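G., before I forget:
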Amino acid sequence: MATKEKMFMEAVKKKFKEEPTDVSTTYYKYGGWRQSKSKVEFQAAAEKIAKDRGFPMMNEDIGVPLGQRSWMPYQLSHTDIFVEPDDLHCINNPAIQQAWDDIRRTILVGLDSPHQTIERRLGKEITPETINTYLETVNHTMPGGAVVQEHMAEVNPALVYDSYVKVFSGDDELIDELDKRFVIDINKLFPAEQAKQLKAAVGKTLMQAVRVPSIVGRVMDGATTSRHAAMQISMAFISAYKLAAGEAAIADFAYSAKHQSINMGSMMPARRARGPNEPGGIPFGFMADMAQSDRVYPDDPGRAALESVALGAVIYDQIYLGGYMSGGVGFTQYATAAYTDNILEDYVYYGIDQINKKYGGFCKLDPNDHDELMNLAEDVNSYSLEMYERYPAIMETHFGGSQRSTVAAASTGIAGAMATGIADCGLNCWYYSMLEHKERAGRLGFYGYDLQDQCGSANSFAYRSDEGLPMEARGPNYPNYAMNVGHLSGYTGIPKAAHVARGDAFTANPFIRVAFADPALQFDFANITKEIGRGGLREFVPAGERTAVIKG
Amino acid sequence: MAYKRQFYPGTTSPAVARRRLMDPKVKLQKLREVPIEDVVKLMGHRNPGEDYKSIHPPIEEGSEPDCPIRKLVTPIDGAKHGDRIRYIQFTDSVYFAPVSPYQRAWMYLSRYRGIDTGTLSGRQIIEVRERDLEKMAKEFIENETFDAALTGIRGATVHGHACRLDENGLMFDAWQRYLWDPKRKEVKYVKDQVALPLDKEIFVGAPASMEDLKKRTTIFRADGVDMRDDKEVTKYQHRIHKLRTLGGYQPFKVKGV
């Protein structure tokens, strides 16, 4: 994609009446918070609540005078959707919540081990027909249906309609014999080359993509997912294969479901304690595999990296760091800078153009040529910073230095990853950007940027476990990354960029890659910013709502 | 050979400005006079004439533990008296403010003892014993590092450093702590740094011209002096990144870099 016309122009022209290059404007005359449709709505709602409950609630007139400058709408990048910042708060946006629900409620449980138990230990035959029977049964049990004990309370299906189990495999012959309704079909969902790679990586394993109900994750937590899945899978085996509910082999099903499965995230240490399948434990490579843009738009590697950034922004920065680790009003606009107004878009596509011009395409820059890697980093980072300097409208759009630091570093890191095909080279470029940004502007982000980014160059290639990891395997749980909002979005885009540049069908885990291609998911992981925008427009319909059991 | 302290590389005007600010031997130019009573009011920690609040007895009266470090360090005046630690925080516009947050930190740490600074993208806080703070605050409001339009004194609600300038060339401040006075053609503060109304207007002088600021600023910008045009600064920054990268990865390769 050419970058002749600045990609952020549409957004900034909608935000401001002045030319994007104007340094001057006027302030203090816009009517304060009343210029914002959502603030007006909030104030009316808060006043009603205060009246109903008999004591004050939120009040837009308390604290900082909001709206002293023109209230900016935000364009979801690579969409035509504009929303207010409030619409992107993770508590206000059901699409963001559903993206997290869909990740948290997913566990991948192999069927090979239980099939061996059934065949070798119990002497029963496994056939495509028995597998289909099992799949029909487990799609009854997983939402909360009973199959073994009589007089059981069950879950209202209207509350858990999003829960299901599907299977996939690299074995086309086996898949051909299974009931298509229960199959995530790699051949149909992925471009041919990606399908070939994925099938080779998955092999003959028959893998279940288990989705426990969204509402289960909300009432319990991510660590419940494996337990819920194990319980209901075991029940389905008992019923489908007519087993004894008390026989010892059943424990093997539960064991394999709990411990021979793929969680989306690992446990975190005591000081940040969360169980598995909570956001802090998700490696960047896994998150990059969940983002599906390159499956649907295989000819647009820039979009693939950018959609990964967007997913990282909402899950890591908004929900994890802004919610789990901080709480309160959170860090919304800190994170949205990376996926709104096509600013990062402009910088990333500039980097792609430069890579094509300088090296003749992706993965052609020798990763051992650190001097040339720095030259590329300087080029892309300087372009990014220069845009802020040449276009005061985007400088004001990213009115916090942390926003600018993240976006400039993300574009530089993505360029380094694409040019070499090595995620760690991209990470090294990220830190180059941070050092240069500080040196150039005399400012960077908040205190955390001192902590994390001034020492990052030194760990960017480190692989020893207490010093570093390959970028694909790092995550928020990596010691230095545990507390700094504004970084994890860009970090997600870097390994994605490296692997999409290489033409890889996945970044870190082929099973996760396939599992999130499933069109039965509530959230469309191939169109992340669009889904977030639909959430902001109040068009997105999330699962797990309780209206089915609330009178009226 | 005696070590000769170095401050900053480069030949361009921002690089030279950075060196000047960091060098404690350089006396910074005083551009305006703001009475100490007004400085005290702007900060809002105590009323002019009010006693300093203390958090411990004067050191000479107290029973300090026998500590070799304490014997080595001469306490600053406020520490001697047991003053509490208070702050002033400056916001510096991206539009060629005379100084930017990191340069403030480097400058403060190079010129003063007994201080704590915190650097963010738009603002820079300096915390120090109260009577020392007041002297420093007066100095930094009066000297060349402060511009009436592009430097703000803000304790909270600090954003504005990256916003466009208003019709009078002033940096945005959601609290409007300062206003343009068209009669005097100067900037006046009407609120203190946490936006409490002042009982009198405090004038901090006229803004410098953009032409003058572009000569004096420490900020590299594409529409001013681009950092890439200062080969020595660029080389120095490359070297830092390269050394850190190799130091953490292949330290045996750090030879002649």
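Chain A touches chain B through 59 residues (CB under 8 Å). The longest helix of chain A spans residues 301-324.

More on Monday.
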